[in-house]
Design goal:
Elements (H helix, E strand, L loop, with lengths): L2 H7 L12 H29 L10 H11 L3
Amino acid sequence: MTDTEQQNSKPDKTKVKKKKSGWRIARWFLVPFLLVLALAGGMVAGYVVLGKQDIGSVFEWSTWKHVYNLVFAP
């Protein structure tokens, strides 16, 4: 086997770095942000629109502690 045949039979082992897409990197930040935004929107829609309560108490810890106690009461 000659040198050219050996070179042709072996795969080239040079590693090529792929560029990461801008969208791929943005997804790491965009998806969690959208999830938190959806959670906040759902809390407001459920508590203010459906429950007809004040929007100021939506983000208070005592409100959600009370809701938790109502749902999981023994």
